[in-house]
Amino acid sequence: MSQYNIVAETAEYTVVSEYRPETRVGSGYQSEADLENSFISLLRTQGYEYLPLHDEAALITNLRKQLEQLNGFAFSDAEWGRFFTECIANSNEGIVEKTRKIQEDHVQILRRDDGSTKNIYLIDKKNVHNNRLQVINQYEESGGAHGARYDVTILVNGLPLVHAELKRRGVAIREAFNQIKRYQRDSFWAASGLFEYVQIFIISNGTSTKYYSNTTRASHVRENAESERRKSKKTSNSFEFTSFWADGNNRAIAELADFTKTFLAKHTLLNVLTKYCVFTSEDLLLVLRPYQIAATERILSRIEISTNYKKTGTIEAGGYIWHTTGSGKTLTSFKTARIASALPHIDKVLFVVDRKDLDYQTMKEYDRFQKGAANSNTSTRILQRQLEDGTSRIIITTIQKLDVFVSKNKGHEVFKKHVVLIFDECHRSQFGDMHAKIVKSFRNCHLFGFTGTPIFAANAGSGGNPLLRTTPQAFGDKLHTYTIVDAINDGNVLPFRIDYINTVKMKDGVKDKNVQAIDTEKALADPDRIREVVNYILDHFDQKTKRGSFYSLQGQRVSGFNSLLAVSSIPAAMKYYTELKKQLSERGRTLNIAVIFSYSANEADPEDGVPDEGFDTESLDCTSRDFLESAIADYNADFSVNFDTSSEKFQNYYKDLSMRMKRREVDLLVVVNMFLTGFDATTLNTLWVDKNLRQHGLIQAFSRTNRILNSVKTFGNIVCFRDLQQETDEAIALFGDKDAGSIVLLKNYEAYYFGYDENGTHHPGYSELIEELEGRFPPGQSIVGEQNQKDFISLFGAVLRLRNILAAFDGFSGAEILSVRDFQDYQSVYIDLYQELAKDRHADREKINDDIVFEIELIRQIEINIDYILMLVAKYHESNCEDKSILVSITKAVNSSIQLRSKRELIEHFIGTVNASTNVDEDWRKFVREQKETDLDAIIGEEKLKEEETRKFLNNSFRDGTLKTTGTDIDKILPPASRFGGGNRAAKKQSVIARLMQFFEKYFGLV
Predict the structure, then answer these.
(1) Same domain, 773 and 889
(2) Residue 966: which H helix or E strand, with range?
(3) What is the pLDDT of residue 861?
(4) Residues 634, 703 within the same domain
(5) Do 477 and 322 contact (CB within 8 A), yes or no?
(6) pTM of the entire structure?
(7) Which helix (H) or strand (E) holds 361?
C-alpha cells in the first residue's frame, strides 16, 4: 500500500501570515455614506448576506428564522415567544449576562409546548461555518433616551454581535468611539435590548480602523461615572486599549478595505468570536490581539504537525514564542493551554514557572481569566495527585516541584501520556540539568517556551551545558515574534525615559579617571554616597512619580504612582531602607516604605542581571534576618497586619506586599532581585537603579515600569545611579532591532535643550526657540498682523511641546530661561488668540488656525489648577490678607490658564470673602456650591426656563463633560413657544445657550 506524506495543510489561520495592501482606486472626495456603501459591498463579495432591515420587528423576525435554520427546528409561535422573552430578551439581563450567554452559555434550553425540553444553539462553536453572517445598516432605534441610527451591524445567526461605526476620511476615529459611547449609554439597551449582544465594536474613518470589546467600552463609561461622582480626574485610557488588526509580521492593517478582507473574512471573524475571546471572572470580555492569536495558532499547528509525523518528545515538536514583557503573554499562554487541553489526543497541559512567586501570580491570572480553569499545587505530593487525575487537564507548577516529581517517580505512567509543557519566561535557569531531566522523562511531549527576553549567543552565559545555552537550543524554532519595538509602536506598552545620575566624582586636584574604574561595590556602598542617593530620591520623588496628578483607581481617588528601588545586595538594601526611614523622619514626611529580600545562592552571578530568588529566609545570616524581621514589623504597624520571616508568613508577606503595590498603597519598595521579573503593577512608573543590570535582566527590570494605565502615565521612568548606558543600548539593540534605540527611548536632555540633527534635518532646541521668541516677540509688546499671530502661535506651540518634555528632566529646573512672569504673559497672549479665534470660528474669513496647531492639552499639563490657586489663597490668608503680591500671582496664574479663565470672577469673589477660617479648601467647596445654586436660580428665573428639565439637562452635561447644544434636549428646557414667536425663538434659544455655556464653563470641574 502506498504511503502518502502531507505536503501542505491549511486550517485557515485566523491571522494571515503576510498581507500586502492593495493599490487604492479613486482619489476623489468620499462621503461617509460612500464609505459605508463600499464597506457593505465588500462584505457582500465575501459571502455576507445583505438585509434591508431597519427596525426591531424585522430584526426579531429574522432572528427567529436564523435560529431555526441553525438548529434544524421550527418554533411554534408560543415556543418562540417563551424562548425570546426568557432566554434572549430577558428584561433582567444586561451586557454582562448577554456576553456570558455568547461566550459560555451559548446552548439555551427551550421549554416546548408538550412539556419537553430542547437545546437551542445561539452559535455553533465546533463548526464555525455553520453560522450565518448577515449585514444590515442604518438600523433605527426610536426608544431609549434619544433616537439613534446605527451605521453597520453584522448579525451572526440573527444576533447583532459586531457593530461598526464609520466616520468620513479626515475625521478622527475617536469620534466614532465617542459615538458608540453615546449609543451604549442612551439606546443599545432600548426595546428588547438586542444590541447589548454586540461583542466587538469596530471604528473606522476609512484610513484607520480599530476594534475592541464591549466591556472595554462599558469599563470606560463606569470609570467616567465614578470619576464624576468623586470629582477625580477622568483618565480612562480605554481608547488606547483599542487595537489595530495586523498580519503575522505585526504589520498593522489599518485601511478599512484591507481590514475587511482580513479581520472580517468569515472564518477569521467567526474564529475570533468563538475561540479568541476570554470572558474573565471579573466579567470583562478580552479579545485577543493579532500577535496573541498568531502565536497560539502556531503552537497548535506545531502540535498537530509533530504529532502526525511522530516527532513528539523531540525538539522538533516544540518551539518558543518571543513576545516582549508587558504584551500579555499570560493571556496568550492561557488561551493556548485551554485550546490545547481540548484537543482529543492531548492528555494534559503543564504550565511550568521557575519560582513560587510566579506560580502564585500565574494562578491568580489564570483564575482571573476563568475561575478554576487551571490547577495549582503547593507540594510535589499534590502535583503527583493532579498528574494522576484524568480530570485535571491544565496544571500550573514550578520547575522545582516538577523536577522533584521526576526524580522520585521514574517510570511513572504519566511519562507515556501525550503532554504539552509550556514554560513561562524560559530563562537560562531552565536550561540546566532539571530541564534535561524533564525532557528526557516525558517521552511523548511537546515543549514550548514563552519569553520576552530570549537567550541568544550574545547574551548567553559561559557555564553549563554548551548545547543548552540559548533559547533555540533548549526549545527549538522561534514560532512568533513581537518585540518591544512592535509593542511601543502599537501602544501596548509605554516607552522608557532614562536618567543617568553620576554619583561618583573626583575631588578637586585629582586627575580625572574613568569612573567605571572605581565603581566597586565597596565604594558604591559608602554611607556618604547612599545618603546622597536617598536625598536625591526624596527630592525628586514627587516629580518622578507625578504626585501632583490625580486619577481614579478601583473607585478610589489617588495621586501619582509608586516605585521600586533596585539595589545590588542585601547589605545595600538594609542601608538604603535605614537611610530612607531616617531622612523621611528628618523631613517630617510620610511615605509608605517597604523592603523585601531572601537568600539567593546566585546573588553575585555575573552572567544574569536578575538571579533567581525564592522564599528562603532560613539561610539568611542572623544580621540580615533580624533586620528583615524588624522591617516587616514596620510594615505590620503601617497596615495592621501580622507577618514575619517564618516560611509561610514570609510568603504571605510577599503576597500582601504584591497586592498593596498594585493598589498603590506602598510608595517605595526596596528590592534586591524580587519583583524585578514577573511582577506587573500598572501603578508602578519609576525604577530607581543602584545595581548592575545587563541584557535580559535589564529589560526585565526596566519593563516593570511601562505597563499602560491611563493618560497620566506617559512613560516608564528609569533613574540610574550607575553608568548603565552602554548596557541599555546593547539590550535594546538585542531585544528590539537595529532601529530600536530611537523608538524605545526618548532623546537625551541636551538634544531637546540645544537641538539636534537627524536625517539631514536640524531640529531646533528649546534655547534656540526661546532666543527666536524673545527676538521676534519681546514680552509685553502686542503682536500685530495675522501672519505674525500665526508665526507666534506656531513658535510658542513648539516651545510648549519642548517644555513638556524637558520638565521630566532634572537638569531643566533653573534652566527655563524665561522668568515665570514672562512665561505666563506669553501664555496669556497665546490663549487670548485661541479664544478670539474660537469666537470667530463661524466667520467666512480665513481662519488663523487652519494651518497651525494649538497646544491646549500641553497647557493643561502645567500645574496651574484650582489646587494651586487655593494654595496661593491660603498663603494670602496666612499673611493676614496684606501680601498683595500674592494677589498679583493669582491674577497672572488665572490669566495664563485656559481652564481657569472662565472661573476668574468666581475666584476673585471668593478671595474677597476670605476670613479668619483656617480651612480654605472647605470654605471654597461651600462657596462654590452656594454660588452655583444662586447663579442657576437666576438663569432659570430670568430666562423663564423649565426648572426640572434645566437641572436634569445641566446634571447630564456635567456628567458627560460637554454641554450639548444640538438636538432636542435644549428645546425641552425653553419656555413655551407662545411667549415668543417667529424669529424671536431662534434668538431666544441662542441667548439661553450662551448663558448656559458660560455657567457650564464656570463650574465644570469644581465641586
Answers:
(1) no
(2) none
(3) 32
(4) yes
(5) no
(6) 0.70
(7) helix 356-369
